[in-house]
Design brief:
Layout lengths: L3 H17 L5 H41 L6 H4 L9 H8 L1 H10 L7 H12 L2 H8 L5 H16 L3 H10 L7 H14 L17 H16 L1 H11 L10 H16 L5 H15 L4 H18 L7
Helix pairs in contact: 1-2, 1-11, 1-13, 2-4, 2-5, 2-6, 2-10, 2-11, 8-10, 11-13, 12-13, 13-14, 13-15, 14-15
C-alpha cells in the first residue's frame, strides 16, 4: 500500500531531520523512518474507523431522539438507511481492521467533536439526501454511497486535512496519498468476502519494504561523496547559498540512482524534481534538474553508472 512516492518523501524528511540533529546516529534515523511509515499505515485504518464511528454516532443520536420526552413522529420513525448501511456493517466486522485496531490501539474516542463535524458534513450533503431517496436498496448502492462520500467530501477537504495534520505530525504529507488507497480499498470490497475482505498490505512486496531503509543508508553513508559531486557542478553557484533542502534532495536522488539499477533514470529524476518544486522554491526544480544531469553524465563517464 505504501508506495515508493510516499517512501521517498518520508526518507527526505528523515534525512533532513538527521542533519538538523547533528547527523550522528544512523540507527536512530532508520527507526524513525520505520515509525513514520507505520504511522502512514495507521492513517489508512483511521479512515475506515472514521466511517464506522460516524455511522455509530448517527445511530446514537437517532436513538436519543427517539427516547427523549415527547418525540415527534419523525423522531420515532427515522429513516435508518444510513445507519443500516451494509458496507459499513461489513467494514465494522472486518477481521483485519479489528486486529489492527486492537494491536495498535488506534481510536477516535478522543476526537468526538471532529467525528461530529464529519457527520454534519455528510448529513448536509446532496449525496446523503439522494441516497435516502434512492429506490435501489442494495449492497452495491450502499458501497457506492460511501465511495462517493469519501471521494467528494473527505478527499482534499480542508477541515479534515487540517485536523489530521494536527493530530499527528507524521501525517503532514500523507493525507492525500493515503486517501487514494482508502478509496481504492472501498472500491474493492465485495459482499461475498464478508468479514474476510482483505485490506491492502503495508507494502506491496519485500523490495518495497526494504526500499526506504536501503535508500536512507546509502544517502547517509555516502552522503559526503554525493555532496562533493553536487558542489563541483554547482561551482557557478555559491554552494553556501544552495538551499539545504535542495542539497539533500540531490543527495538522495544520486543515492537512488546508484543503489537501484532497475529503477529508470527518468523515474528517479522526475520524482525528486517534483519534490523540489513542493518542498523548496519554484526555481529549485530547474536548478536540481541541471545539476543532477551533470552529475549523472560524470558518473557515466567514470564508468560508475551504466543506466540508460
Amino acid at each position: 500500500m505504501i508506495n515508493r512516492i510516499l517512501i521517498r518523501i518520508k526518507v527526505l524528511q528523515i534525512l533532513y531531520a538527521f542533519y538538523q540533529n547533528g547527523g550522528s546516529d544512523l540507527k536512530v534515523a532508520e527507526n524513525e523512518l520505520h515509525f513514520s511509515l507505520q504511522k502512514s499505515y495507521e492513517l489508512y485504518h483511521y479512515f475506515f474507523l472514521l466511517i464506522i464511528d460516524v455511522t455509530a454516532l448517527q445511530d446514537r443520536l437517532l436513538d436519543n431522539r427517539k427516547h427523549k420526552y415527547m418525540p415527534t413522529e419523525q423522531e420515532m420513525n427515522p429513516n435508518t438507511r444510513f445507519i443500516d448501511n451494509r458496507f459499513v456493517k461489513q467494514l465494522a466486522d472486518n477481521k483485519e481492521l479489528k486486529r489492527f485496531v486492537i494491536e495498535n490501539k488506534i481510536s477516535w474516542s478522543n476526537d468526538a467533536d471532529f467525528v461530529k463535524s464529519v457527520l454534519d458534513l455528510v448529513l448536509a450533503s446532496e449525496e446523503y439526501a439522494n441516497y435516502l431517496q434512492d429506490p435501489d436498496d442494495s449492497y452495491e448502492t450502499d458501497k457506492k454511497f460511501w465511495r462517493t462520500i469519501f471521494k467528494k467530501l473527505f478527499c482534499e477537504n480542508e477541515m479534515i486535512s487540517e485536523y489530521l495534520e494536527d493530530k499527528s505530525i507524521y501525517w503532514n504529507d500523507d493525507v492525500e496519498i493515503i486517501e487514494t488507497f482508502a478509496l481504492k480499498t472501498i472500491r474493492r470490497f465485495e459482499l461475498e468476502e464478508g468479514a474476510d475482505q482483505p485490506l491492502l498490505p503495508m507494502f506491496k512486496d519485500q523490495e518495497d519494504r526494504m526500499f526506504g531503509i536501503q535508500l536512507l543508508r546509502e544517502a547517509i553513508l555516502r552522503g559526503s561523496e554525493y555532496r562533493e559531486r553536487v558542489s563541483h557542478h554547482a561551482k557557478n553557484w555559491e554552494t553556501e547559498r544552495v538551499a539545504n533542502i535542495d542539497m539533500i534532495i540531490m543527495q538522495l536522488a544520486i543515492a537512488e540512482v546508484m543503489t537501484f539499477p532497475t529503477i529508470p533514470l527518468n523515474v528517479t529524476l522526475n520524482e525528486y524534481i517534483d519534490m523540489a518544486k513542493y518542498y523548496s522554491t519554484p526555481k529549485s526544480g530547474i536548478f536540481i534538474n541541471g545539476i543532477l544531469d551533470s552529475v549523472i553524465d560524470e558518473l557515466k563517464n567514470e564508468k560508475i553508472l551504466f543506466k540508460a
